[in-house]
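Re: the 261-residue chain
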Amino acid sequence: RPDQAVFFIAFSILIFVECQHAVGVIGRTTKISCSIKTTFGSDQKIIISAASATKRGETDPVFWFQNDVVKGDHRFKLASKNDPSLLLTDTAVSDEGQYDYTAVTNRGIIKDATFRISVKAKYNPPSISTWPVKIVEGGPADFYCNSSGGYPAGAIHWFDSTNTNWTMSATLEVTEREDQLLEMSSKLTFTSIDSSWEPIRCVVLNSKFVKEGESTIHLMRIDECPCCSSQTSCAIHFYLSLLDSLIFFIFTCSHMNNAEF
C-alpha cells in the first residue's frame, strides 16, 4: 500500500551507522568503532544479520558476513554480535583508505555509512656516519643519517652542540621498501667543518613532527690519529723510524769495533 511505502521510507531515514576515524599500528589489531544511531527513541533491539565493507576505488567488498559466515578478508570481523564495530588484525599499509559500510538489520538496510583507516609505524633508531671518517678541521664533511621501518613519511632534523638547526642545509630522500614501510636518508654537507660544533645530532620525527629517535656522533679528526694523517704518511713515518733505528745500530756497532782496536 502507498501509505506503508511512505512510512517505510520515513522510518529507514531514522536509523544509521556512525563510525569513527581509526588509526592503526602496523602489525597490530585496529578497532573501527561504529555505533547504530536512531532518532525515533524506540527500545526495540536492533539485530545485525549481515554487513559488508568496500574500500573506495574497488568494486568488490573487502569483507562481508551473513548469518555468522564471514567471507573476503578474514582479518576483518565484527567486534561482537550486533555491534557494528569492526576489528582488523595484522594491520598493513595497504589497509589505509576510505571505506563504505552497509549493514542489514531487523529494522532495515543501513547504507551510506563510511569509515576511514589510517596506519602508522614507528621508525627504527637512526644510524649516523660521516665521510670522510676522519675530519680535517676547516675542511669539507658530509654527515649521513638513516632510519627505516616507519610510516608515513616524516622528517630528519640536524643539530650541533649549540642546538643550532642545520636542517635547511640537508637533503632528505624517502624510499618505499617491499613491505611498503619507508626508509628515510638525510645528508648534511659542510664545506668547512668546525670541531666546536660537535657532537652533531640527527633527530627522526614522524609525520606529526613528534620525535621518535635520535643519534649523535663525535668527530674523529685527523690530528687525533696516533700516527699521522693517512695510511701513506703512516707508512713513511714507519720506515723513517726504522731507518733511524738502523743508522743508530750501525753507528753503535762501528763505535764498538773501533773501541776493540
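The helical segments are 2-12, 231-260.
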